[in-house]
Specification:
Bound molecules: zinc ion
Strand content: 15-25%
Largest sheet: 6 strands, antiparallel
Protein name: Protein kinase domain-containing protein
Helix content: 10-25%
Organism: Glomus cerebriforme
Radius of gyration: 25 Å
Order of helices and strands: EEHEHEEEEEEEEEEHHEHHEEEE
Number of helices: 6
Number of strands: 18
Structural class: alpha+beta
Length: 360
């Protein structure tokens, strides 16, 4: 009898894959990282799609993981011309291409690509040598209908094996925020909405300091949660693991200490923000082409111009206060904000301790 999850809300984004019993550490969360986060060896490129991978951590993973389940959607290949001594003996039984990582040999096998990795900012050159299998390696379903021509290929996933979902979670401001559960490992280093380079919090968390979007990856399932707001945790949809987000740095930058003010400041960050539309329509997007998801998100999220964004600056960040004028409601000062390297005007409101929620 097959074990089934009894939780009615259970949703498996990658039903043909099992959650790995040990963390998958050999893939960076930043596609442009040069050295392995764990062993500090230099990452190498996969043969196709220019994905980064640490061969050292990958061979350790292959040694430590059991043979019974499929944890990765990956393609590896032998090169007959450079077979190592051990494999030379069994040359005739050798496979050409396989997705069984236990067959991997550091000396004569190559990783062609990981199907579970997608970055929004793939460049055309990424696809130059991309020669994907026509059928899904996990379930056999035909993915590419037409004859493939190199250089003219889109990155496509199997519609049965990769499913997207979305929902709401509570933000730090206790407001519901949108969360998107991507069935792949998003290793981009740029924000999908504003293109700003992301700040990396850890080896599986990053965020945009402009849009306050957090990207949280699960190293056991290679899935990514995109959180459209600030939260201190999210849950992997596949293995239910709670991913705690180290928000100390985020809090330093973002919070005023008052939830209503924080929510108000957050809203100045976007010109367009259609969370409900995303929730309602994401299931109708053809996610077999992952770039469609990012295009759709961008059409529903437009960042404000830089000067329209309001940001909290705490009193301790303001230096050299110099009184300029005093009126009935407050006092105006000239001051310096060293972090912004700017001279600013500061208005101190009289009886500002009694400010109501609806600020007048
Ligand atoms: Zn490594
Ligand atoms: Zn070998
Ligand atoms: Zn499939
Ligand atoms: Zn952004
Ligand atoms: Zn997981």
């Amino acid at each position: 009898m097959e074990l089934t999850n009894t939780n009615e809300n259970y949703f498996n984004p990658t039903s043909k894959l099992k959650s790995s019993p040990i963390p998958i550490n050999f893939l960076p969360f930043n596609k442009n990282a040069r050295y392995c986060f764990y062993c500090k060896n230099r990452y190498t490129w996969t043969q196709s799609l220019y994905q980064k991978c640490c061969e050292n951590c990958f061979s350790q993973y292959v040694n430590n993981v059991d043979n019974n389940n499929t944890y990765l959607d990956v393609l590896i290949e032998t090169r007959q011309s450079i077979l190592c001594q051990e494999h030379e003996k069994s040359k005739n039984e050798m496979f050409i291409t396989t997705c069984n990582i236990k067959e991997w040999c550091r000396n004569c096998l190559f990783i062609i690509y990981f199907k579970q990795i997608f970055a929004d900012h793939y460049y055309f050159s990424n696809f130059r040598d991309y020669n994907p299998m026509k059928n899904c390696t996990l379930c056999g379903k035909l993915i590419y209908q037409t004859i493939l021509t190199k250089g003219d290929i889109v990155f496509k996933l199997c519609s049965d094996c990769y499913l997207i979902s979305s929902g709401w979670i509570n933000s730090l401001n206790e407001k519901p925020i949108l969360i998107l559960y991507l069935p792949w490992w998003d290793n981009s280093d740029q924000c999908l909405v504003c293109n700003k380079y992301l700040d990396f919090i850890s080896d599986c968390q990053k965020w945009c300091t402009r849009c306050y979007i957090i990207y949280s990856g699960c190293r056991y399932c290679l899935t990514t949660n995109i959180i459209f707001g600030l939260s201190d945790q999210s849950q992997c949809r596949k293995c239910n693991r709670i991913l705690v987000i180290s928000i100390a740095d985020i809090m330093n930058i973002t919070t005023s200490g008052n939830k209503d003010i924080d929510a108000l400041l957050y809203d100045t960050r976007f010109k367009i923000k259609n969370d409900h539309k995303i929730i309602n329509e994401i299931s109708s997007i053809d996610i077999t082409i992952p770039s469609n998801v990012y295009t759709f998100l961008r059409s529903n999220y437009t960042p404000s111009d830089y000067y329209s964004i309001m940001q909290w600056i705490s009193y301790s960040q303001i230096k050299n206060l110099e009184k300029l004028a005093e009126g009935g409601f407050g006092i105006i000062y000239k001051a310096i904000c060293p972090e912004k390297n700017k001279t600013i005007a500061v208005k101190r409101l009289k009886s500002s301790q009694k400010i109501s929620r609806v600020f007048k």
